[in-house]
Amino acid sequence: MHKHPTLGLEVGLVLLGIVVALAVFAGVVAPLDPLRTGAVPLQPPSPHHLLGTDELGRDLWSNIAYGARVSLLVGVLSTLLSTVTGLAAGVAAGYYGRGVDEGLMRIAEVFQIIPGMLIALLLVAFFGGRLWTLIPVIALTGWPLPARVVRSEILSLREREFVLGARALGGRDVHIMWRHLLPNAFPPVLIGLPMQVGRAILLEAGLSFLGLGDPGAASWGKLLQSAQEYMREAWWLALFPGAALTATVLALYLVAEGLHARTGPVLQ
Amino acid sequence: MSLLTYSVRRVVVAVPMLLSVAVLTFVLVHIAPGDPAYYLAGDGGTPAYYALIRQKFGLDRPLPEQLARYLWTVAHGDFGRSLQQGQPVLSLIITRVPATLLLVGSAFVVSAVVGVAIGALVAPRANGFADRAVLGTTALGSALPVFWTGLLLALLFSLRLGWFPVQGMMSSRGSPAGWARAVDVLHHLILPMTALAVQPLAAFSRLMRLKMLEALAEPFILTARAKGLPNARVMLQAARNAVLPVVTVIGGHAGALVTGAVLTETVFAWPGLGRLALDATLTRDYPVVMGVVVIASVGTVIINLVTDLAYAAVDPRITYA
To answer: What is this model's ipTM?
Structure first.
């Protein structure tokens, strides 16, 4: 008996593949310029405009295809940044212990107490909502988790024979952390990555929905923000961008869960 | 250690943590580009006017002094005055707290109770039809962005069917009293509460199902069955053990619910703290933003504390070491 039917991982990977393909080949699958206005505004879906047009006559399908780029870019880059930060903080806290550990974990706690959206609101409003500011802002809400996971791994690893041996042989701290501790502490963080990417994508979409995203980027959240005004006339503007967002996040969650189920203890 | 000493110790530990939240918000706000004086006085004032504004709001003092002033006043429950509206921040916040508490609290209770119940009910027949249906639905549910759920609910139930009001917390025409007023608020609450509850409900039911499956495989369940306990009693015993780790996770969701509340309040124009934070952020109303962040953090700390105590209540094995 499995905890979950294992179908999830495959479904997740296929869905994710579709979204990645959409992002990579946006220009091919959606030949219309997402920013070009001029078509009849607020057209319902038709063979000509697959998913209809918005209030300025822009093609919704093209906007959604290009929006995949923004979502994946922000999701992946901010996760990379938060993971690297979290790894560095976690390894340092676990290895040095004492004051370093105390200090870093208290800082992590502060970031975990403040609800993520409020940190993001605060930072984005003050540093501006450009893609290159959104990415570190979202990363800042995500680093405590990998930091904690790595720290607890390191705490048990650092007393193991191979680490003690490396230290007895005169290995320097940086060498021990990089060559011996990090590679062993990394796998549990790796499994959590798809989940982190999903959360980052949701946060970016949320910020854009609040009007704090990058005004120059075709983001799904921004599409939903403008959809609000035309909900009575144009249901498609609210329906499709949200469906794309949900499908992407669902794909990442399914992959994350599938990885957990395959690597974690399996219930017999 | 008794429950009381434990709670007191937890509260004492939380104080420096909350102070560092205040310091952090203060530092962030002040390393940001842009001069708050421009946001107070608007564009096109004379330099002398801006100087006057800076002096009036203490913005001309050195940063450490501003911080010390800020922490001192925050510790006294005073978050200063709103730069935009001139009112004390705390009273602005207090007028918004009930709306958010109602929204977040009801979503929290509904998602926890319904989520745990669903998880416990489908687990005994794992991989059956109901279980698979619930698994599929909750996988989708946990991926649903709260603001999209909100938009769809508003689109379907307010705009198309006209069953619920689209926005706000009370009807604007006349203000009914007593029960009529409560019913009116409830009528407004249902859609935003549902939007906010969907994601945690899905997450809780998935987790509960998993933990229930684990509990059902434990030897004490076999013993209970062997003793001939009725099935309902056996399930109850499994559920009691399964719910423990779920309680911890539910407590950890407080922050996520506040995040969701900011978005939900925007979709439904719900007059809560989230809207206040967003509006303050857009106008760079520093004291209000900092006040909301600190108060929201106090809220999360309290919920975590309550969760820990609830954990102790359901698990008699816990001692407060």
So the answer is: 0.85
